[in-house]
Write a sequence for this structure.
């Protein structure tokens, strides 16, 4: 097999893999919610997102002292009274939109002694498979180019 046909075959295989990979455009939303005080009873925090597409893949769904559920664009965090604070929950969601998400939260029942609240929403993009395939093709070409010149150099 000649070097040229090997390189062409490799490019065809990589292009086929890129075409067969489903597109995954979108972003990953990372959210953290924590507070310093304990609560006297079970407490529920509803985190509502705006500027989002379809949310999915909530991870994790439970942490020490809390359970998490996703319904539409709302993540419900239920804190157990048996585990006194401080509480800290960090979770991720997949979003079909590529725009920066924002969020707000509401606490039920209203807790007046909720001190040291930290709430943050961070959006990071997910590269599409075609971009990764192009990177792979480029790296393969550079490797083949290097091997070709390494073998043909005059000693």
């Amino acid at each position: 097999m000649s070097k040229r046909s090997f390189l062409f075959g490799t490019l065809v295989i990589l292009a086929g893999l890129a075409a067969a990979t489903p597109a995954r455009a979108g972003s990953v939303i990372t959210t953290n919610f924590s507070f310093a005080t304990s609560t006297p009873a079970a407490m529920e925090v509803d985190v509502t997102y705006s500027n989002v597409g379809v949310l999915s893949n909530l991870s994790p769904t439970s942490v020490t002292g809390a359970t998490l559920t996703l319904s539409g664009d709302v993540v419900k965090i239920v804190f157990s009274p048996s585990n006194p604070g401080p509480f800290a929950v960090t979770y991720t969601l997949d979003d079909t939109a590529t725009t920066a998400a924002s969020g707000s939260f509401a606490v039920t029942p209203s807790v007046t002694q909720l001190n040291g609240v930290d709430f943050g929403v961070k959006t990071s993009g997910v590269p599409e498979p075609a971009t990764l395939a192009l990177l792979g093709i480029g790296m393969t070409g550079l490797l083949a180019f290097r091997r070709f010149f390494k073998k043909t150099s005059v000693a």
Summary: The mean pLDDT is 74. The chain has two helices and nine strands.
